Amino acid sequence: QVRFVESGGGLAQPRGSLRLSCVVSANSFSTLTVAWYRQAPGKQRELVARRTPADVTAYLDSVKGRFTIARDNTKNMVFLQMNALKPEDTADYYCNRDPAFDAWGQGTQVTVSS
Fold it and tell me: From its phi and psi, is residue 19 left (phi > 0), alpha (psi between -120 and 50) or beta?
């Protein structure tokens, strides 16, 4: 069972930045396709960004050019750098594999508001 612990959320102003971190408990982290998801109030969870073991990335159209997913295989960590934040980015953010086979962590809340 792979486990995830997210952190780094908070309140940001529009056009601001936040960096989310996720510690992944897995024996074979470097072989996993890792991803960030988000769930806004009243909406379904959606995949925001993914990164394969070969470092191929993919992004939700609405975050392309603003968000960057990164990984550190030496520390079993995944990051999401979020720039030029918009109010519609407000959500709880989670990391998991893609597909999301494992139990969800507690997530980290991101609020974008002036």
Answer: beta
Task: Assess contact for 14 and 85: CB atoms under 8 A.
Answer: yes
pLDDT in tens, 49-92: 999 999 999 999 999 999 999 999 999 999 999 999 999 999 99
Phi and psi at residue 101, to the nearest 5°: -75, -25
C-alpha 103/C-alpha 113 separation (Å) is 30
Please give the Cα distance from 54 to 107 (Å, whole number).
26
Q: Where does residue 8 fall: left (phi above 0), alpha (psi -120 to 50 degrees), or beta otherwise? A: left
